[in-house]
Amino acid sequence: EAQVTQNPRYLITVTGKKLTVTCSQNMNHEYMSWYRQDPGLGLRQIYYSMNVEVTDKGDVPEGYKVSRKEKRNFPLILESPSPNQTSLYFCASSLWDSSYNEQFFGPGTRLTVL
Amino acid sequence: AQSVTQLDSQVPVFEEAPVELRCNYSSSVSVYLFWYVQYPNQGLQLLLKYLSGSTLVKGINGFEAEFNKSQTSFHLRKPSVHISDTAEYFCAVSAGDDKIIFGKGTRLHILP
């Protein structure tokens, strides 16, 4: 089954404790992206990747890191989480040109930073 | 740079009634337009998209949208809603530069 998976689905952590949210897709998509969803703000892009070893900042990259060492994986790293990073996070993937191709979304990771 | 505005944060509608969810965009270049749906506790999935050609686009689950260039709108419609249509709907715009901008979403509440 074609899908985007994220782990964990739920995470509660404390300020400053480094964490990683994994994202994997099995559709051989070149393009992958991370979004955060906050009430009243919709989806905002954090980082995206056009292909292996190619990443770029989205609209809200501060406090986040990403890497793309393999085509299928695109982990999101919070080196020192803060309460304002409490949010619902989505990973998405699409064929190489995301401008007009459908994005496939993972189920989401709900993160709470205390 | 492009932007997208969803004019209604919430829309209540009775079951089997028609619904329209409004979306306006701004861009100095030609755009691609999308509607995504997010069912409770799920990720987003594509409802429909407009790339070019016919301005009336049909999507899944009986939804359709009409691209109106002069009014810079891409409103989503369904002639008769069902309780299963309860979800949040996101309009999105892309100018072909590998960036897609999402609106803030419209929650559709179906009333029995």
Describe the structure.
The complex is a heterodimer of chains A (114) and B (112). The model of chain A has no long low-confidence stretch (mean pLDDT 94). In chain A, strands 2, 4, 5, 6, 9, 10 and 11 form a 7-stranded mixed β-sheet that branches. In chain A, strands 1-3-8-7 form a 4-stranded antiparallel β-sheet, with no helix packed on it. Chain A has no helices and 11 strands. Chain A starts with a strand and ends with a strand. Chain A has strands at residues 4-7, 10-13, 19-25, 31-38, 42-51, 54-57, 65-66, 76-78, 87-94, 104-105, 109-113. By secondary structure, chain A is an all-beta fold. With 112 residues, chain B is mainly β. In chain B, 0% of the residues lie in helices and 53% in strands. Chain B contains no helices and 12 strands. Chain B has strands spanning 3-5, 10-14, 19-21, 24-26, 32-38, 44-50, 56-58, 64-68, 73-78, 87-94, 100-102, 106-111. In chain B, strands 2, 5, 6, 10, 11 and 12 form a 6-stranded mixed β-sheet that branches. The N and C termini of chain B lie far apart (41 Å). The chains are: A mainly beta (114), B mainly beta (112). Chain A binds chain B through residues 4, 31, 35, 40-45, 48, 50, 58, 90, 92, 97-100, 102-108, and chain B through 9, 32, 36, 41-46, 49, 51, 90, 94-100, 102-105.
